[in-house]
Recover the amino acids of this structure.
């Protein structure tokens, strides 16, 4: 038919690669921060053992999955959500909206205020994950970028700003 | 508290603002739509309008149909064509990408595909549609006249009126709103504005309708230079005006009567002006008459037109007359914007003084509100002679 065409929608390849790298890095950053930062430790202490949460884009990802095992240690569990029972899903409504978040054009509070984020799971746990993400972003990002992304940039002591940040970044790179 | 029963119905989810289009996949899936058919005009800009829409479906795995054969001369054959496409290819939702006839066709097709093609005949008229229809999305690409998001549709001289034909989702994304010179959308702007003003001023008992109208008026009046510039300022982004037109559709669907439009429809048959022009021109006179009859809550009109600070600074008794002054100022601006083509009084459009009695009679028999012959005549006379706002009708 002359005026009709059917389109199979494609994928944003470069955006997906960028997001996969960022989610991988943030996931491992959460894992490292849970070992060295007391606030992140406290937040995870309130989660039940075996609790798994994911962050990603609706409907097909990319995703980041992080879980707390029976011993209480936190691990980055990769980017597949199909082979695990996820207790809490935090999703942005589209890949481009996740890209806005992870390219620091929009902070988490702004994204949430613009109705881009939805949660499948308990809201208190979702709030805790957002708080953890805020702390990890402060560790992983340079201050001028982190100030754009989070609501209030924290005033931390020098040791935490330098030494703990170094440990979190090292942990995120080598994966411990 | 007011004991009068009021109602406001709007089933449409409205997404407006930056990246609003990117929420579409989620919103469609939420209402169980996985294979939408896009209906648009044949001259739709592929790069600036269609590409962002297709991009919004990226990574969703969904299949999208695009029918771009709608034109002003589209007829029943177009509906037949889209109907067979929808059924044969297994689509489950319609996206109307554009205004006017695109929306009317999308609404008509939705009636047909939700039941049978015969429903187009059966459901013509007021409140004949018994059930919810299939999902319908309206994506604005420019300024509409509010009918897009309303419960009204008209196609091939058949009119439909039902809350079920309102779109389920309406999206205004500034990325795909095409910049346009204000002159080209002038008719739509004055219609939407008149509708919102009348709804706000004459529906004091319906707070939900009023709050919608208030938002629409503020969107337009926050930047009067953009809304009604003294000169043609060239192409400009009109997203806030489009936003107001989307809201005006919900307001229109819930208004009991649109007096100035009814008057405008009758009067436009006796002079050289469009209905929209007459509606805009009559607005201050109809509101002044209603105010002198003690109808509505007129002093609050200033709050919508000029914002909180000016409203608070103006004494109670001056507020209504300031509002009317603003409306007349806008009419004068319209005159300048249209290079003297827009009428400032009925005298300027060839309306004859002799026909007042005849038209007043027709108006009274058409209007359901309680305007008497002399009162209607007084409104026409004031609009004819461009009298000052403080006119008093002669009993």
């Amino acid at each position: 038919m002359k005026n009709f065409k059917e389109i199979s929608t494609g994928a944003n390849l470069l955006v997906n690669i960028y997001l996969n790298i960022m989610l991988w890095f943030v996931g491992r950053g959460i894992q490292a921060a849970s070992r060295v930062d007391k606030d992140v430790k406290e937040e995870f202490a309130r989660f039940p053992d075996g609790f798994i949460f994911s962050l990603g884009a609706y409907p097909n990802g990319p995703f980041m999955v992080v879980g707390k095992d029976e011993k209480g240690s936190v691990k980055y569990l990769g980017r597949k959500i199909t082979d695990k029972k996820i207790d809490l899903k935090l999703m942005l409504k589209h890949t481009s909206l996740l890209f806005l978040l992870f390219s620091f054009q929009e902070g988490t509070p702004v994204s949430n205020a613009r109705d881009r984020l939805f949660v499948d799971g308990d809201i208190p746990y979702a709030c805790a994950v957002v708080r953890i993400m805020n702390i990890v972003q402060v560790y992983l990002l340079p201050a001028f970028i982190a100030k754009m992304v989070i609501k209030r940039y924290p005033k931390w002591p020098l040791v935490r700003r330098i030494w703990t940040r170094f440990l979190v970044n090292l942990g995120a790179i080598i994966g411990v | 508290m007011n004991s009068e029963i009021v109602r406001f119905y709007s089933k449409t989810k409205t997404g407006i603002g930056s990246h609003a289009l990117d929420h579409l996949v989620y919103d469609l899936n939420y209402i169980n739509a996985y294979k939408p058919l896009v209906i648009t005009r044949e001259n739709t800009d592929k790069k600036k309008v269609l590409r962002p829409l297709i991009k919004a479906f990226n990574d969703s795995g969904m299949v999208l149909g695009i029918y771009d054969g709608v034109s002003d001369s589209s007829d029943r054959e177009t509906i037949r064509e889209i109907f067979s496409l929808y059924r044969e290819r297994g689509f489950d939702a319609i996206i109307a990408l554009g205004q006017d006839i695109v929306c009317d066709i999308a609404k008509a097709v939705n009636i047909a595909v939700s039941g049978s093609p015969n429903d187009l005949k059966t459901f013509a008229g007021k409140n004949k549609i018994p059930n919810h229809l299939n999902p319908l999305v309206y994506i604005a690409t420019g300024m509409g006249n509010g009918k897009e998001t309303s419960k009204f549709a008209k196609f091939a001289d058949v009119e439909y009126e039902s809350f079920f034909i309102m779109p389920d989702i309406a999206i205004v994304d500034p990325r795909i709103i095409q910049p346009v010179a204000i002159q080209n959308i002038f008719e739509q702007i004055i219609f939407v504005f008149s509708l919102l003003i009348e709804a706000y001023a004459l529906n004091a008992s319906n707070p939900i309708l009023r709050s919608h109208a208030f938002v629409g008026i503020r969107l337009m009046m926050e930047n009067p230079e953009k809304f009604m510039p003294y000169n043609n300022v060239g192409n400009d982004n009109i997203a806030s005006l489009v936003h107001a037109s989307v809201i005006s559709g919900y307001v229109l669907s819930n208004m009991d009567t649109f007096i100035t439009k009814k008057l405008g429809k009758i009067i436009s048959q006796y002079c050289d002006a469009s209905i929209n022009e007459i509606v805009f021109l009559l607005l201050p006179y109809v509101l002044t008459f209603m105010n002198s009859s003690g109808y509505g809550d007129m002093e609050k009109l200033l709050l919508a037109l000029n914002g909180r600070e000016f409203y608070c600074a103006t004494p109670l008794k001056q507020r209504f007359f300031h509002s009317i002054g603003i409306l007349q100022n806008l009419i004068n601006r319209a005159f300048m914007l249209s290079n003297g083509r827009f009428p400032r009084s009925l005298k300027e459009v060839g309306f004859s003084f002799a026909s007042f009695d005849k038209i007043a009679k027709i108006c009274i028999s058409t209007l359901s509100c309680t305007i008497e012959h002399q009162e209607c005549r007084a409104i026409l006379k004031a609009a004819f002679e461009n009298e000052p706002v403080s006119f008093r009708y002669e009993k």
